[in-house]
Amino acid sequence: MTLDYRSDAALTESKMRVADLAYSFMQYKTQLATEEYTKAVFLYGQDIAPKEKCSVAVTHQVQNSWMYEYKTLARRDWLNLMRNVPFLASQVVQSLATALIVGFMFFYLKHDSASIQNRLGVLYIVALNATFPIVMPALYAFFDERDIMLRERSAAVYRVTPFYISKATTFMPVALTSSAVFICGVYFISHLTFSAGKFFATLGVLSCLNIVSISFMLMIGSAVRTMDVAFVIAPGIITIELLFGGLLANPKTIPVAIKWIHWINPVYYAYAAFVLNEFSDLQLTCSPGAVCYLDGMQVIEAYGMGRFTIGQDIAMLLAIAAAFYLVGYVLLRWRAKPKFTWI
Fold first, then answer.
1. Given pLDDT bands bounded at 50, 70 and 90, which one contains residue 7?
2. Is there a contact between 94 and 201 (Cβ–Cβ < 8 Å)?
3. Does residue 14 carry a pLDDT above 70?
4. Exposed end of the chain (fewer CB within 10 Å): N or C?
């Protein structure tokens, strides 16, 4: 039984339940001590020390190890996730449906100048698919579990760290699987560059962006108190990321006053890595009446995507994810602290 700190009324009610439980336990302990004393008198006679009459064995509860708490919480989270059939089914259906629609929308891309816009568009949709479809459903599921954690944490049932990491590792396989299904359909139907190296590079960058999205979801879920506020803040931030993602506005033309948004934007780094991976070593043919690019490197330079290498873009994505995880953990630890402690 734990104390409910969500409101003063709930706290008072839970304290009354704890007091009733403690009173019942004291009655049970007194009865048990009396029975033990009766047995001792029967076995050893009346010569028994008075202190032995009320002796009750008290054992010290050793705190569970961090790994034990993590495994227990991760197992519980995974079972809850597997029981959430609507959530899992929606992830699979959404990935398959979106992959088919996007793939056939950009069906069998060619190598002429007209295909440049389509290639840039399909790569941007790949990046977009790792934002809203990943963050919003996971955010909804996280809030339900967070409320339970706040009650259990008030009684120091487990540490905040194993709960936080278990959430990250539980949501991650679902996000990576749905994104893998999506990219497999889009990549081969739209006929992006058929190369094993380029395909797995695209999959790797997309996985890193998924990690950023999960960390962003945990940060927002830990920062705000209610789900309604989270569902206002998260889409707003993601929309700003998409605006500065590199397709809607050329990074070279962004005003200096707001250019800092561009440098902390995970969508930009993922999209730049996609463009570098797809257009490097790509030979193009000129179409009559269209802007002529002889090869993919000219496209990369024109759209301002060549500032960093693919490896540097991935490193920036992982650094942003680490920052989101750290901020989210600090916020959750502060929110989950009992009122009688400072941290």
1. low
2. no
3. yes
4. C
How is residue 3 written in tokens?
């104390």
Q: What is the pTM of this model?
A: 0.78
CA angle, corner 180, sides to 174 and 181, nearest 5?
A: 95
By the 10 Å C-beta count (0-12 exposed, 13-18 middle, 19+ buried), 296 is classed as buried
Tokens for 182?
């999506």
Q: How would you write the chain as a 3-class SS string?
A: CCCCCCCHHHHHHHHHHHHHHHHHHHHHHHHHHHHHHHHHHHHHCCCCCHHHHCCCCCCCCCCCCHHHHHHHHHHHHHHHHHHCHHHHHHHHHHHHHHHHHHHHHCCCCCCECHHHHHHHHHHHHHHHCCCHHHHHHHHHHHHHHHHHHHHHHHCCCCCHHHHHHHHHHHHHHHHHHHHHHHHHHHHHHCCCCCCHHHHHHHHHHHHHHHHHHHHHHHHHHHHCCCHHHHHHHHHHHHHHHHHCCCCCCCHHHCCHHHHHHHHCCHHHHHHHHHHHHHHCCCECECCCCCCCCCEHHHHHHHCCCCCCCHHHHHHHHHHHHHHHHHHHHHHHHHHHCCCCCCC
- pLDDT (tens digit, 9 = 90+) per residue, 323-343? 999 999 999 888 776 654 444
User: Which tens digit of pLDDT belongs to each residue from 155-168?
Assistant: 677 888 899 999 99
Exposure class string for 235-250: b at 16+ Cβ within 10 A, else e: eeebeebbebbbbeee
| pLDDT confidence bin for 52, thresholds 50/70/90 | very low
